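Journal club prep, shared notes

We agreed each person brings one worked example of a sequence with its structure written out as tokens. Mine is homocysteine desulfhydrase. I'm keeping it raw so we can talk through how to read the token line rather than staring at a rendered picture. Sequence first:
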Amino acid sequence: MAANADTGFSTRQVHAGSATAHASPRAMPIYLTAGFTFDDLDASAAHFGTGAGFGYTRTGNPTIQAVEERLASLEGGDQAVLVSSGQAAVTVALLALAGAGDHVVVSEHIYEGTRGLLLDNLARLGIEATFVPTGDLDAWRDAITPRTRALFAETLSNARNDVLDIAAVSAIGRERGIPLVVDSTFTTPYLLRPIEHGAAVVVHSASKFLAGQGAVLGGVIVDDGRFDAAASGHLFPHLVQTDRLGGASYAEKHGPRARGAYIRESVAPRFGPSPSPLNAFLIGQGIETLSLRVERQSQNALTVARWLEQRPEVERVDHVGLESHPDFDLGRRYLTRGTGSVFTVTLRGGLEAARHVVQSVEVITHMTHLGDVRSLVLHPQSTSHSARTVDERERAGVFPGTIRLSIGIEDIDDLLADLEQALVGVPVVERETVVL
Ligand SMILES: *Cc1c(COP(=O)(O)O)cnc(C)c1O
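Then the structure, token by token:
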């Protein structure tokens, strides 16, 4: 290193004390660096030629890679690509499949950010979306056109806790060579591994349960590594045709891993939503306790849902672990380890009752986030679902008196006591008198 006492102040301020010592930390090291040094010219040429080794953090970083390998393993997928947010994960997954003139079929009950992405942003790029009811298999089939390049849905959706029949919807796509992409944010790989049921690509907002502590944003795309060029190549010419310079196609180079390789090598680094290695580290730390948190959160949430269902102030509770939920049987089939911790409660007293509760809770926090170790509450009608019509909201189970809970890992008695005190003063009225 050019940092001995003969070099100038400015040289020493950037070169003295460079920490390149090799050590073996047990915790995942944070490679907080934009890039990596090359041993020699051949190494740099090999990196640019074949991607060997590490060069620049947007195309690869050991901390990020460790988290990707952990997530691919937990999902039972082939490879994972970590990005900077859940929105970025959805965007990258869809842009890897569809281009101008193409079409996607999408469940109507999806995260508002994804719906806006499709309606406002991808539409401007010429990618059209048709929305269908999550559970209507005929609607999924009928919506497919010769230009359809993906089916997209959430495994367990906000607000009504609809469960996606992954096996049935993925089979409809497979008949036509079209992959099912699922957003599994609400279920996490601990509760559900969609690839085992036929999904081709799984995305998550890692900002939620995976990180788990509400400190960072992140997203991940997991590919199943089962791209079938014979069945689907005609739909995805960018995967099977020779590259821009006449070289081998992704399918020739990567076989069934072609789609995952395209996401990793082309879409994610070019559009550029790279995660910070520091955020990757925090997501990796969070994942180490995923099973413990989600197990406790699911137990707590079901107890809270059952308690609320008995309360006179409550009109309905939409939690898939309750026998009263229309998808209870589907939930039993897909969610064998727990039913998640995000659900909605509709109060008979309408908007004013909801206002009272979100402003009265003390243990539960009033904010827009979910999957945190802390319990959170939000009023969907005036926030996450405010861009929907009254009709769309009602079909999603969102009424003026609806609040969304994301239950954390606190002691259950404290959560029930908090809700009990927050319900004091909330009117107990009949449904007919509720002004919608
Ligand atoms: C939060 C969320 C997203 C978006 O993720 P960000 O990390 O906030 O960008 C996408 N899908 C679902 C289901 C979400 O809950």
